C-alpha cells in the first residue's frame, strides 16, 4: 500500500481510537460511526487491501480475533445477536482500503435490515456455478 490509510494511522498512534483489544497480529477498536453500541472493527497490523488480497495466515489471525471478541461484545452490550461483515471494494461498500471486519451487535427491534435477496433467472444458477467451478 502506497498511502497510509486511517487505520494505519491508528496503528501508528497518529489518530486516537477506542482500543478494544490488541495482540501481536491484530488490533480491534470501536467504530466511530457504529450501527449499534459496541460495533467493533478488527484489522490486521499488516496492511492489506481486503479479503481479495490478504494472505491465509494474516486472515486466520484476523478471524481468530473476531471469533474471540464476538461473544464478549455480545455479552458486554446485552445484544440479542451479532453480525460479522467484511466489505470488499467500493461496489461492496468498502471505504477504507485496509482489511477490516465489522463485529456488529444486533438487538431485536433495532430497525436494521439485511439486504434483500432475489431469485435467479431460469438457468442462471447453473451458469454462475459453472463459472465459479472453472476457477477452483
Q: What is the domain total for the residues?
A: 1
Radius of gyration: 17 Å
Biggest β-sheet: count, sense, barrel? 5 strands, antiparallel
Sum up the overall morphology in one term: globular
Q: Structural class, from helix and strand content?
A: alpha+beta
- H/E element sequence: HEEEHEEH
- Across the major sheet, the strand order is 1-2-3-5-4
Q: What CATH architecture do you see?
A: 2-Layer Sandwich
In the predicted model, the low-confidence regions spanning at least 5 consecutive residues are: none
Mean pLDDT: 95
CATH superfamily: HIT-like
Please give the count of helices. Answer: 3
How far apart, in Å, are the first and last alpha carbons? 28 Å
According to CATH, the fold-level topology is HIT family, subunit A
Residue share in β-strands: 15-25%
List how many beta strands DSSP finds. Answer: 5
Fraction of helical residues: 25-40%
- Please give the CATH class: Alpha Beta
